[in-house]
Design brief:
Layout lengths: L5 E4 L4 H12 L5 E4 L2 H11 L8 E4 L2 E4 L1 H10 L14 H30 L5 H5 L4 H9 L1 H12 L3 H22 L13 H14 L14 H10 L3 H13 L1
Parallel strand pairs: 1-2
Antiparallel strand pairs: 1-3, 3-4
Helix pairs in contact: 1-3, 1-9, 4-8, 4-9, 8-11, 9-11
The structure holds glutathione.
Length: 249
């Protein structure tokens, strides 16, 4: 019997939600560890991760970094509940959808949100950053908040113009999902829930804030994002995300 793996996450991260949802869905027993921003890098180095981003999963002497690789690992062991996330046919199509949502919408939904929330309303972001952390973990975030904001602003290239650019990219990416759903299908590939659906729903969840999401109950949209999301809320893609969360999360 192997020791349960440990999944290292940020509460606010939609990529972490993607990995966590997959492990939950497949009934895999794991320990969840919330890490603080600086701590994430130290733990990643100690475990021998190739990079420093969350999520990463530590299991007996091995570490798997990145939501897609974590899902592939979870699919490679026998799922305790017999469920699968890889579709029986259309594996390539599912992989293409997952890759595109990981590379484009995953990045730009985050930049769209932080460009307004972290730059103009930073006090609304900090509670989610410190959620589920111990006092020892919270303290450096409180003390170093200004520095953390600066680093994040530079690394993600945040700002008003950049936010508007990411909004446009999100509009295009939502249109891509709207078009895929236009034939009335319930799932993106085949006729059952797959990793393509899980990837798209989790990475778009910051726009929808579904009530089944484990960590977004305290997250509020800043005003311009809230107005855009209100305009977009009846799009097929966002209605579908709400439905997928209600059915599968
Ligand atoms: N493609 C990666 C993206 C992971 C990612 O961007 N994680 C962010 C949190 S949302 C992070 O840790 N950023 C800090 C860093 O990259 O050092 C995945 O699917 O896991």
């Amino acid at each position: 019997m192997m020791t349960p793996p440990t999944l290292y996450v940020f509460a606010i991260s939609h990529y972490c939600e993607k990995a966590r949802w997959a492990l939950d869905y497949l009934g895999i027993n794991f320990t969840l560890r919330h890490v603080a921003p600086g701590e994430r890098m130290q733990v990643a180095r100690k475990l021998g991760c190739p990079g420093t981003s969350v999520p990463y999963l530590a299991l007996d002497g091995q570490v798997i970094q990145g939501s897609a690789d974590i899902i592939s690992w979870a699919e490679s062991i026998r799922s305790p509940n017999g469920r699968r996330l890889t579709p029986e046919s259309g594996i390539e199509q599912a992989a293409e959808i997952e890759q595109r949502i990981d590379d484009i919408a995953g990045v730009h939904v985050r930049r769209f949100y932080y460009s307004e929330a972290l730059v103009e309303h930073p006090s609304t972001v900090r509670p989610i950053f410190t959620q589920y952390l111990s006092w020892q973990q919270k303290l450096p975030i409180w003390l170093g908040w200004r520095k953390i904001r600066g680093i994040m602003t530079r690394r993600m290239d945040l700002g008003r113009e950049q936010g508007a650019q990411s909004q446009q990219i999100m509009d295009t990416e939502l249109q891509w999902i709207d078009d895929l759903l236009a034939d009335g299908r319930s799932y993106l590939v085949g006729d059952r829930f797959s990793r393509a659906d899980l990837a798209v729903a989790s990475l778009l969840s910051p726009l929808v804030l579904p009530q089944q999401h484990p960590t977004y109950s305290g997250l509020a949209h800043p005003p311009r994002l809230a107005a855009t999301v209100a305009d977009w809320s009846e799009r097929a893609s966002l209605r579908w995300v709400r439905d997928i969360y209600a059915k599968h999360r």
